[in-house]
Design a protein that fits this description.
The protein is of the alpha/beta class. The N and C termini lie far apart (about 45 Å). It is built from 13 helices and 10 strands. About 25% of the residues lie in helices and about 10% in strands. Strands 1, 2, 3, 6, 7 and 8 form a 6-stranded parallel sheet that branches. It has a two-stranded parallel ribbon with strand order 4-5. The chain has a two-stranded antiparallel sheet with strand order 9-10. Keywords: Signal.
Length: about 450
């Protein structure tokens, strides 16, 4: 990847004034979503970062349980079929400049065979395109510009089970959040979608309170390019509204489910205040058989070997061009097992941080009171100039140095009673230059 593209991916998407349009050169201006201004702020969550005084972590808060998360929302886990006549969506659609939204029909399952090889709409699902063909929206964020950095991201949260049983409760949040807290107070991007927050608002509040950076993962987790314009707006609107009602923040980052995005969807997202965060390394952990993924087809051993291969490549000195944004999930016992097992080794070999931090995004929300640590010395504005936001530097997550010799790194066995055969066939991968990581799980 060229230095020019790496620099483009590092461009930031926040403004110095909350309600003012983002100063841009060539990009369509953004404004803080006025259609969320009247949503009352919740209690039980932090109102700024860095947090003044003690950070409320540990057990899940309980204040979110009293919130009414059904009135004014569509059915959970379902695409909004009547979006074109939904008064809330109609009002938002009036704020969008539709001349800046490419006039392309929604895709279908057969579109792949008829779509032009020239990829006129930068359809990621077609060939992994991350640089829009229109010049008024920025490239997707898809890696960490500085080599040796690992952008930690978890999709599909907050993780919960219904009904809760003693067997599955140990994997629900705050399991992963506790693990991150115990391992260098590690921060990550948490990609929440609205329908999941409805079932676990307290877990969502814990994620914010722990200092993780929250991004939008839509309302119902659909293939976004298959939706009508009104349905695309609805997915963003209700996802943002749920996050604002439960967490009191307005994210400026989002991730498309399945990575399915094109310039039509990007243009709508951008005008609704959102910048797209993709990835360049995919664990494919969502395909591992698990308690919430009974039909998964990816053996755990294969996913384990994939991560081990990345670390071995880095340890051998072959991974020196750019850093990475890595796709993981808080989705099942299997994904949590994989994430927790490899994190200590990843922290030894990479400077590990949220994808927003490695791209010098200090303010990922429209609320100015949240200013997170970044990798560089100053944050970068949308037009590439430095800003007056002097965010604290990332510290405490720098790799501990190169060790000598070889270390055997193997995945935990028997990680799940319902995880399928994938957990029985675990591999032992030799990783050059890494300290052996032994993690025991009591099930």
């Amino acid at each position: 990847m060229t230095l020019k593209l790496s620099a483009a991916l590092a461009v930031l998407f926040f403004a110095a004034t909350t309600n003012a349009a983002t100063p841009t050169t060539g990009y369509l201006p953004q404004t803080s979503p006025a259609w969320l201004a009247d949503i009352p702020l919740p209690s039980g969550v932090i109102k700024s970062w860095p947090q003044t005084g003690a950070v409320p972590s540990g057990p899940l808060p309980t204040t979110a349980a009293a919130l009414d998360l059904t009135t004014g929302y569509p059915a959970t886990f379902q695409i909004v079929t009547d979006a074109a006549t939904d008064p809330q969506i109609v009002a938002v659609m009036k704020t969008i400049d539709w001349t800046k939204v490419p006039n392309v029909a929604p895709t279908t399952e057969t579109t792949m065979t008829t779509y032009s090889p020239s990829d006129p709409y930068c359809w990621w699902t077609y060939n992994g395109c991350v640089t829009p063909k229109v010049d008024y929206i920025p490239p997707d964020i898809s890696n960490c510009p500085k080599e040796g950095t690992w952008g930690l991201t978890y999709d599909d949260g907050p993780m919960y089970y219904f009904p809760v049983t003693p067997e599955n409760e140990k994997w629900a949040e705050p399991n992963l959040y506790n693990y991150l807290l115990a391992h260098n107070d590690q921060k990550a991007n948490l990609m929440y979608y609205g329908s999941r927050i409805v079932g676990a608002p307290d877990a969502a509040q814990r994620g914010l309170n722990d200092g993780h950076t929250i991004c939008v993962h839509t309302w119902s987790h659909p293939y976004m390019t298959r939706l009508t314009n009104a349905q695309v707006v609805a997915e963003f609107y209700y996802g943002l509204k749920m996050i604002k009602q439960v967490l009191g923040i307005t994210p400026r980052c989002w991730r498309p489910p399945y990575g399915d995005v094109d310039d039509r969807v990007r243009s709508i997202a951008w005008q609704m205040g959102l910048r797209n965060i993709m990835w360049d390394l995919d664990t494919n952990d969502w395909q591992i058989p698990g308690d919430l993924v009974p039909g998964g087809t990816l053996p755990y051993s294969q996913a384990n070997a994939t991560v081990a291969g990345w670390l071995e490549n880095r340890a051998k000195g072959n991974d020196t061009k750019v850093g990475h944004v890595v796709l993981e999930h808080e989705l099942s016992n299997s994904t949590i097992t994989l994430a927790e097992f490899w994190l200590p080794t990843i922290q030894k070999e990479f400077q590990t941080m949220p994808a927003t931090a490695c791209n010098d995004i200090a303010q990922p929300y429209w609320e100015e009171s949240f200013v997170y640590p970044i990798q560089g010395t100053v944050a970068i504005s949308m037009n590439g100039s430095t800003t007056n936001v002097q965010a604290p530097q990332i510290s405490g997550s720098t790799p501990s140095g190169t060790s000598s010799g070889s270390g055997a790194v193997s995945a935990p066995t028997g990680a799940s009673k319902t995880g399928g055969a994938g957990h029985a066939a675990v591999s032992k991968i030799t990783v050059f230059g890494l300290v052996a990581a032994a993690v025991a799980y009591i099930l």
